[in-house]
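Hi V.,

You were right to ask for the full record rather than a summary. Here it is.
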Amino acid sequence: MRLFLHLILPVGLVIFVLDRLSKVWIVDVLDLPNRLAIDVVPPFLNFRMAWNTGINFGLGGGGPEEMRWLLIGLSVVISAALLWWVLRRDDRVLGWGAGAVIGGALGNAWDRLQWGAVADFLNMSCCGINNPFSFNIADIAIFMGAIWIAWKA
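Predicted structure:
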């Protein structure tokens, strides 16, 4: 329980809050859903609005409403299973990655509850390559946390 309270929970909360604040800023303040695109540091970093109803890179998107609820449930179940696994191992090093994955997964699940889709907005293109995909802070945290766990487990 100590690992949860002193590491996994704070890391997860920081990721969740940063993700929520970034999305509120992008969606409500910058009004990116209506503007669709803002060049921040062209061509490297751009804001490109994408509502992701599927999993990573929109795979499985555009499905029935039940898919939304399935993905919310899957996020919660995977987060709970990861938490249980890390707590059983009582490994502080894995706690960092678990907090990042859980905070990111719950941030994206919140989007699905609030908007019906995940708000993706970060787009990185360079050197004549036009990247059609957008992502968000939660996605970065999930990816980095999963890599950290795989490397350290």
